[in-house]
Amino acid sequence: MKDAIPAMLTEKRRVPMPVGLFTGRRTWLRRLVAWGTAAVNRSIDLLPIGRWLHRRIQKALVFTPLELPLLARSRGLHGLRIAFLSDLHAGSFMNEVDLRRIFQRVAAQNPDLVLFGGDLINTRERELLLFETALPLLKPPLGMYAVPGNHDLFWGKGLGLWSAFLRDHGVEVLENRGVRLSFQGTPFWLCGVDDLTEGEPDLRLALDGRRPDEPAILLSHHPDYFFEAAASDVDLTLAGHTHGGQIRIRGKAPLHHSKFGFEQGWFREGDARLYVSRGVGVTFLPIRIDAPPEIPIVTMVARTVNEAKHVRSGQNAEHRALADAIAGDGDAD
Question: Fewer Cβ close by (within 10 Å): the C or N end of the chain?
Answer without folding.
Answer: C
